[in-house]
Target: Dihydrolipoyl dehydrogenase
Amino acid sequence: MSTQFDVIVIGAGPGGYIAAIRAAQLGYRVACIDEWKNAKGGAAPGGTCTNVGCIPSKALLQSSEHFDHANHHFAEHGISVGTPKMDVAKMLARKDSVVKQNNDGILYLFKKNKVTFFHGRGSFVKAVPEGYEIAVQGDKAETLLGQQVIVATGSSPRALPGTPFDEENILSNDGALRIGATPKKLGVIGAGVIGLEMGSVWRRLGAEVTILEGMPTFLGMADEAVAKEAKKVFDKQGLKVEVGAKVGEVKVAKKGVSVAYTNAKGEAQTLDVDKLIVSIGRVANTQGLNAEAVGLKLDARGAIEVDDECRTSLKGVWAIGDVVRGPMLAHKAEEEGVAVAERIAGQHGHVNFDTIPSVIYTSPEIAWVGKTEQQLKEAGVKYKAGSFPFLANGRARALGDTTGFVKMIADAETDEILGVHMIGPLVSELISEAVVAMEFKASAEDIARICHAHPTLSEATKEAALAVDKRTLNF
Model:
């Protein structure tokens, strides 16, 4: 006999666990199924983000940044520490501890909100008059019955054709987070978020890092001015990025990996490295879901087809996060999870794709929301833009990091903010002000007229808003 629930969520990543909690808050009887396991075989909810993505990568970025500061910046503060040494094993242990804290936190939230958690793989069995039968394959097999089903199964790393991940030499984001010792030479294929962040971690720890990017431009998804500044800074740091690189045969030998590629000039090249991280995108994780059993439609990429409100082709079945269209971002998944739970309850869930921020946690950090200048030019939109450098910001000087700037773009006639682009210290935190402003359709003048505490990095946002009208006060 099946255990009955009002809502069953398959997947406990950022979208799934948040959807389950919100549905429970709305009074539904909720089950959440997730198969992630920790090193001891126990439940590890949180999905890719918590286990092998956002959280552990930030832990390593923080550790490696401390090491970099000790090596290169402590002396200017009058701090003498001798020659710093990095214990990679201890750094990885701290990372694992941070991950476990997040896993345990989610399990606690399930208990607090009365969400029933099942540790195993969830898949469709069949449609029934009362909803859908969902199988759980874990320590023990169970069958659940749900009136509403939310699929939040996330995504998996895309491998190079003919070169599967072995997580020893050819690494996905998972293996990149578990390198046991700093490699002398590290190769990365793909200069996106994962490639730049993981490349930065190991570069700070002493690896010679080369990133091969297939696109002809660097950070093509970012504003051009930000991308140019980032490339200049990364070059200075020693993070070598080659754009326009077409990767050919990849060979694994006893002592490393050899990558044949053609550079932007069409010249044949070979990159020999100790380890190779492949970060060329991700694919929707629908294998094992048994979608065909209930006729759930997938698109050509294997993602679940949904409408603007995350409804699938089946009544009572929804899908959110990386397994559907849109940016593969944890916070996008969370917003969709909340929205779907509220739509099930007859409310009007809200997700605005135009105000979803993007962040790259390198040093300097990179963040943006809204349209880039090149997008507005292509669309023929008349705009005005203003920038303010952190070089002229008092707090940035005190921090000892004056790299980068804040750029604001507004409509030429209405002054409504159309995009905000940042590169510099802690811009991952500063971008939220721009998101709030754009969500409420603020003008650049609105930000320019708001009092910002002094001295703060956020004053650079105010000054960029003033710069839109060509009236900065401190530059």
In short: The chain has a mean pLDDT of 97. The radius of gyration is 24 Å. Residues 355-468 form a domain with the Enolase-like; domain 1 fold (CATH 3.30.390.30).
